[in-house]
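Subject: sequence -> structure tokens, single chain

Hey, anyone have a minute? Need the predicted structure for the following. Not urgent.
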Amino acid sequence: MLIQSDKKQIEALGMSEISVQEQLRDFQEGFPSVKLIKPALLNQGILTFDQAELTKRIRLYESSLAVKKVVKFVPASGAATRMFQALFECLGTTTEGLGLSSLAVQNKAVQTFFKQLKDFAFYEELEQLLINKGLSVDDPFHILNCLLTAQGLNYGQLPKGLIKFHREDGILRTATEEHIVEACAYASSGAGEVYLHFTVSQEHQEKFEEHVAIIKDTYQTKYGVKIVINYSQQQKATDTIAVDLENNPVRNQQGALLFRPAGHGALLENLNGIEADLIFIKNIDNVVPDRLKFETIRYKKLLAGTLLSFQSVAFDLLNILEQAPTDQQVIEINGWVRDHLGYVSDAPLDRKQLFEVLNRPMRVCGMVKSEGNPGGGPFWVQNKEARTLQIVETAQVNFEQKDQKQIFEVATHFNPVDIVCGVRNFQGIKFDLIKYRDPSTGFITQKSKDGKPLKALELPGLWNGAMASWNTIFVEVPLITFNPVKSINDLLLPEHV
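Reply:
Had a minute. Here:
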């Protein structure tokens, strides 16, 4: 299906012809669904700690900061267009001079937006812009036009990280600033350095850099730290080929192959490039004002302390296995792997197998009680090796199988993307994270191009299939630590106002 010009295009993009051929085969054959065994529940895959144990693990993490390099990794790519979807639809049907009364027929989200417009952190900035332009501050058309388009604030084309989320003591803060403040509170090293890494799109990186250049000194002075921020972009080489409904490659008007971004699983390459001992992962839109940061900070430290605690034991066991362990030691190590690492095999593992299982990247994932959130959660999954703890997304489950549907629906917890990663082995050498991805956990989605349907392939998700072969520990965290902003009106919730 590939011609000579295709091969040249593939090479120019930094891809291999073999990988593209494999993608085409994936479209033909599809991906297997995961085999859910049962949901992870409290004390059945999800850990909880009493106050004494919580304090102990927090102190363990705090004491490690003198010698550990910590980085906060924040996926922040893409424009916030979906956040403003209802407002864009309204703008498309609104004309100048209609007034607020005309919005009576609009959907409730739009009505709420205008009713509480003055409660948004960005309102004063928007109002001043309208006044400066000589426009009515009560005209829905002018309000939306100045908020969403390049005629004004251009929020509809900005990434979420550059949108004013909160007001703190009269000062407006973007989502990026809230992440910086948060990191200063729990990720400052012994030398007083705070490292953050944002994945951004090429078109927005300069805007991020300009914004950070303006605000960084303020926070460095306030918290007495040195803030180091790095950026990376989703690599073009991780894009995947698109096909039509008959699985033939889609081409543009010039006859070139169409490639598409492969979802957040492509960011595994970015994560793999970070030099650190511990990496915190959190989405760009999950932030709160300072008055609510205490619990977030406390539980971030708990997750990191839990990782260090488990990692220390795993490293000790690896040192034993590297020597000449007794039969009794092998039995005891089997028990620890089964009881603490969420790895349950049908038969006891030998010394070599135990070493391989223990010598993997480790992650501790916060889980919140589910309130009907769309997305994935914690489950026991059967794979080729064993029954293991995994984060599973809906796209990975075959809901036509009654038992799988039932297992998924009785899950009690949700994945808020609150993860701490240990990416070095017991000898201090960084793992190659790509080796621990399960390529069979990708999935196919329906998209369109120029009005024509097509199929797109997404790589295994960053926190599900991309980390399928990591050692995984789940810890319950309070719901107050999960406050995402998916639509503009989420900023009107009590947690954000």
